[in-house]
Amino acid sequence: MKIVWVTSESTPYAKTGGLADVSAALPEALATRGHQISVILPYYAQQTGKLNLTFDGFHAMLGVPFGPETLWAQIRIKKLRENLTCYFIEFNRFFDRSTLYDWNGSEYPDNAKRFIFFSRAAMQAILALGLEPDILHLNDWHSALCSVYLKSPLYSGFPAFRNTRSVMTIHNIGYQGIYDKGNLYWTGLGWEYFNYMCLEFYDRINLLKGGILCADIVSTVSRTYAEEILSPEYGFSLDSALRHCAYRGRLRGITNGINTKEWNPATDSRLPARYSAKNLKGKAVCKAALQKRFELPERPEVPLFGILSRLAYQKGLDVFASCLEDMLYHDDFQFVLVGAGDPGLQKHFQYLASKYPQRLAVFIGYTNDIDSHLLEAGSDIFIMPSRYEPCGLNQMYSMRYGTLPLVRHTGGLADTVRNYSPDAPGKSTGFVFWDLNTESLRNTIRWAADIFRDSPSDILAMRKNAMRMDFSWDHTASLYEGLYHDAHQ
Ligand code: ADP
Ligand code: GLC
């Protein structure tokens, strides 16, 4: 199939979260299965530019209708392999910024314009490059408008789109692209699109809503999350639109995979020692290196908990913050926390790290690959108390490194982690709790630490089991093929 994958981020070019990992790994897995893949993404001069890439070609003048005028963008072309090419839309007024979406915790005021432009540019690029896709695969709100465009007279008449069906993948419904309705002006679409079955949302426009309701198929990144978002608690006011899709059999959940080549403790050159499920000796070396790197006492016997996360409400780390000091005061545990986001949380964690330097190490910011791989490998237990989690990748990275995830039972975390059972440690892969509150989280952390100290053979069995789980993309990619066929039904 000819598949065009439209995304606002992809590793290594630009990344704020898991969308970037998926937008690199899944197109690659689909290409390996023989499909023709084109990835369209913005050219972020300050992030992608830093990589000093060489390009295989340029498409100089891409005309993008935008409100009353036509803006001129450039396409940078990078061929990754015969059947996998990235097309970067370069338009510096919108994409030459110090960060991707926001600055100092506030969204850029022109984000509506930036991503309306990007979506329109993607449609124009498909025409200009003659891609003639069978599938237009859209990801999150940034590119959702493309599915509205595809059904609109602006594009539906082009032979290039005659055989095109759209797939809208929701990686996180907490972000929808909700803006003042005046922004409709920039889309080139008429007011007839401002209705409750398309872009209208409480008298504003909602780009993700339009994308969901116009797509031929909607998917999300785990099976449990696909069910959860049908409820008001998880649906962020789009539950009714999603129920409409589900009722027509057009909503699917496909759990993400991970890049098992990049995340492989047996070959990972970023680590001070390599290891496998058969021989875990190197993991102890990684733990010592992690303690040293983050200036914690090098003690093999102490349970070491890792966290690597955006500090966003979604991640439940406010609840972790509210029980952390009690544990730092009473318990002989170590914590390494790496993250960036909420300024209040950042300050709180930094304050606690200065008060308990023997037990808590904090790095605020975006860390490099070496440290994030070391954190996954060197921790004993990895904490993810998410309020909601469409899929989550870190729990799978940790399991691959024999680090046991401690997670809340929600979304993809519920689908990928098997709770510890003393009767069957060899079938368990982590620790699971249900209610997101201070008591419950603190008790689970203490419970995991008790098992770590008192039942080392259970921990070893769990580590080995976790490392043997198959999270590779190949199987996942085959499920997407099924989805693409269904989109054509
Ligand atoms: P989300 O996309 O919601 O942030 P995921 O678990 O799907 O959650 O993916 C998060 C990705 O971002 C992982 O690859 C994780 O390692 C990375 N990440 C998150 N915060 C940081 C950080 N501060 N430094 C480096 N990588 C980070
Ligand atoms: C989002 C979600 C995360 C998911 C990722 C990739 O950022 O928050 O749970 O793993 O997208 O699909």
Describe this structure in words.
The chain is 39% helix and 21% strand. The chain has two domains: 271 residues, Rossmann fold (3-Layer(aba) Sandwich), CATH 3.40.50; 187 residues, 3-Layer(aba) Sandwich (Rossmann fold), CATH 3.40.50.2000. The strands form four sheets. A nine-stranded mixed β-sheet has the order 3-4-5-2-1-8-9-13-14, with helices on both faces. The model has no long low-confidence stretch (mean pLDDT 97). With 489 residues, it is an alpha/beta fold.
What are the defining features of this structure?
489 residues, 18 helices, 39% helix, globular, binds adenosine-5'-diphosphate, binds alpha-D-glucopyranose
Beta-strand percentage range: 15-25%
Task: Using the CA coordinates, give the radius of gyration.
Answer: 23 Å
Overall form: globular
Largest sheet: 9 strands, mixed
CATH topology (fold) name of the largest domain: Rossmann fold
Q: What is the CATH H-level superfamily of the largest domain? A: Glycogen Phosphorylase B
Give the spatial strand order of the biggest sheet: 3-4-5-2-1-8-9-13-14
Q: Helix amount, in percent?
A: 25-40%
Structural class: alpha/beta
Query: Could you tell me how far the N terminus lies from the C terminus, measured between alpha carbons in angstroms?
Result: 15 Å
What do the pLDDT scores average to?
97
Model regions low in confidence, pLDDT < 50 over at least 5 residues: none
